[in-house]
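Translate structure to sequence.
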C-alpha cells in the first residue's frame, strides 16, 4: 500500500511525540535525521517542536543559576567544555554568560599543578610549554601541557670511547631555542693502532717467504764496469688486471703479465752494459686492485681483475722475485725500490717487507723502504729521484728534490726524476733537473681503451755514469721482445 505524504507526516509526528530526539525518531522511521529535518523544513515545520517534552527533558537555563553555583561547577572541571556538559549548556553559552559579567570562565576552572623544569618522574622529560584553546572572546576553554626529552647533558650518559678508537666527529641537533636536543658521536679506529695492525699482518705474512732465495755466485767482475749504474724501471705493471681482446684489442691476465715482463727484462738485461750495481724500480701500481673491493682507493672506479685476491698477491710477489733474480745473474749488487701507486698505495707497503724475508740470505740484494712516496738514490755526481707521478705536477718535482735533499742537490751535478703513472715515455728538461716518465708492458683495461690511450708497450734501461750523468738508454719494445722469444723457441 502506497503511503501518501500526508499519511507519512502523520506517522512521523506521532513517532516524534514518542521520541526524545530526532535521531531516535529516525531509527523508528528508517531514515537519516537530516532527511527528516529537510522534509519538515520543506513544509515550513520544525521537527524539534514535536518532540515529547517529557522524554527529551528541558535543558536548564544557565541564566537561572547564580554566579556562585556556576563557579562551583567550573571549579570541579578542568575545561569549559566539561563544565558546559555538566551545566547542560553549550561551551559558548558558558563563555558568553561570564563575558556578559566582565568575567572569564577560564579563571574559575580547576587548575592542576603544572610540571616544572625538573624531570617528570622516571620518563626523563621536562616541561616544554603550555598550550591553550581560547574561545571567540579570547577566554581559555582548554589548556594542556607539552613535555620534551631532557638534553644529553641533563639526562644521558656520554658514550665512552671504545679501546683503540678516537673520537672522529660530533654532530649536535638543537631546537628553535638553541638548546641541544641530541648528540651523535662517531668513532674511528686510531690511525696509529690501525697502522700497527697493518705492519704486524705484513710481517706475519712475510715470514712464509723467509729464506726461500738461496745465495748465488756473483758474475765475473772483470766484465763489469764499476763507474756505470744501470736503472731498470718497471712501468705500472697492474698485476691482476684483466682485459678481453674482443673489447680492448688485447688479452691480458695473470699469465700474460708475467710472460711479457720477463721477456722484456731478459732481452733488456742482455743488451744493457754490465755494471757492478743496478737498481730495479717498480714505479708504482704493481697491483691493479688494492683489495677485494676491486676499486681504485681514491676515485672508486671499478676494476677488471683476473682471479681471486690471494692468487693475485702471490703471482705479483713471484714476478717481483724473478725480476730480481734475473738481474743478480748480470750485476754484483741489485737495489730494489717499490713505490706506492694510486691503485695500490697500502698494498705496495707490504712488498718490501716480503722481499726482505725472501732475500734474507742474499747479501747482494738491498731493499729500500717505501713508506715515503719519494725515494732518492745518489750515485757519484748523480741524484736520482723516484715517485709514482700522481702527486705534484712534473714541473714541481725539481723543487721537491731540491727541498728534500738540499745537501745532495748542492753536492751533485746531475739530477733526474724517474716516474710512472702516465704509461708512456716522456720527459721534460727543466733547469738543473730532467723529469722522465716510462712506459709499461701491461695492456689497456676497458676504461683506458675507452679513453683512447694507445701508448706503445715496453721497457727502458737508464745507464748513468758516475761523473757524466745519464749516458745511455737501452729500449726494448714489447713486440720485438716477443719476436725474440718466439725465434729462440
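Result:
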Amino acid at each position: 500500500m502506497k503511503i501518501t505524504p500526508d499519511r507519512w507526516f502523520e506517522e512521523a509526528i506521532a513517532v516524534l511525540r514518542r521520541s526524545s530526539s530526532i535521531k531516535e525518531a529516525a531509527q523508528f522511521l528508517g531514515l537519516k535525521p537530516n532527511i527528516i529535518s529537510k522534509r519538515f523544513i520543506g513544509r515550513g515545520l520544525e521537527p524539534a517542536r514535536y518532540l515529547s517534552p517529557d522524554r527529551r527533558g528541558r535543558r536548564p537555563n544557565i541564566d537561572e543559576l547564580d554566579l556562585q553555583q556556576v563557579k562551583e561547577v567550573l571549579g570541579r572541571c578542568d575545561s569549559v567544555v566539561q563544565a558546559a556538559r555538566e551545566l547542560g549548556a553549550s561551551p559558548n553559552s558558558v563563555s558568553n554568560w561570564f563575558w556578559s559579567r566582565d568575567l572569564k570562565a577560564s579563571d574559575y576552572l580547576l587548575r592542576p599543578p603544572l610540571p616544572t623544569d625538573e624531570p617528570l618522574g622516571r620518563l626523563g622529560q621536562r616541561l616544554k610549554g603550555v598550550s591553550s584553546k581560547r574561545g571567540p572572546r579570547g577566554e581559555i576553554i582548554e589548556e594542556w601541557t607539552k613535555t620534551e626529552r631532557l638534553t644529553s647533558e641533563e639526562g644521558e650518559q656520554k658514550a665512552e670511547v671504545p679501546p683503540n678508537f678516537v673520537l672522529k666527529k660530533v654532530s649536535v641537533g638543537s631546537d628553535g631555542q638553541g638548546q641541544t636536543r641530541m648528540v651523535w658521536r662517531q668513532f674511528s679506529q686510531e690511525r696509529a693502532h690501525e697502522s700497527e695492525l697493518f705492519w704486524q699482518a705484513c710481517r706475519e705474512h712475510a715470514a712464509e717467504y723467509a729464506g726461500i732465495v738461496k745465495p748465488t755466485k756473483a758474475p765475473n767482475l772483470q766484465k763489469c764496469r764499476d763507474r756505470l749504474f744501470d736503472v731498470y724501471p718497471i712501468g705500472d705493471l697492474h698485476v691482476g688486471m684483466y682485459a678481453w681482446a674482443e673489447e680492448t684489442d688485447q688479452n691480458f691476465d695473470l699469465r700474460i703479465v708475467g710472460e711479457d715482463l720477463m721477456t722484456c727484462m731478459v732481452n733488456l738485461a742482455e743488451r744493457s752494459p754490465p755494471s757492478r750495481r743496478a737498481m730495479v724500480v717498480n714505479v708504482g701500481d704493481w697491483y691493479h686492485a688494492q683489495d677485494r673491493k676491486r676499486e681504485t682507493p681514491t676515485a672508486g672506479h671499478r676494476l677488471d681483475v683476473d682471479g681471486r685476491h690471494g692468487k693475485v698477491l702471490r703471482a705479483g710477489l713471484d714476478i717481483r722475485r724473478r725480476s730480481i733474480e734475473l738481474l743478480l745473474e748480470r750485476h754484483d749488487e741489485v737495489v730494489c725500490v717499490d713505490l706506492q701507486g694510486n691503485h695500490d698505495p697500502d698494498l705496495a707497503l707490504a712488498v718490501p717487507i716480503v722481499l726482505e724475508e725472501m732475500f734474507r740470505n742474499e747479501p747482494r740484494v738491498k731493499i729500500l723502504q717505501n713508506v715515503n712516496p719519494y725515494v732518492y738514490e745518489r750515485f757519484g755526481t748523480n741524484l736520482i729521484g723516484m715517485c709514482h707521478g700522481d702527486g705534484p705536477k712534473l714541473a714541481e718535482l725539481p723543487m721537491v728534490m731540491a727541498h728534500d735533499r738540499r745537501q745532495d742537490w748542492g753536492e751533485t751535478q746531475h739530477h733526474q726524476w724517474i716516474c710512472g703513472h702516465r704509461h708512456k715515455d716522456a720527459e721534460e728538461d727543466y733547469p738543473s733537473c730532467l723529469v722522465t716518465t716510462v712506459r709499461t708492458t701491461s695492456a689497456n683495461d676497458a676504461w683506458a681503451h675507452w679513453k683512447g690511450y694507445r701508448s706503445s708497450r715496453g721497457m727502458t734501461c737508464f745507464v748513468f755514469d758516475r761523473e757524466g750523468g745519464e749516458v745511455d738508454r737501452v729500449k726494448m719494445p714489447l713486440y720485438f721482445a716477443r719476436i725474440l722469444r718466439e725465434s729462440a723457441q
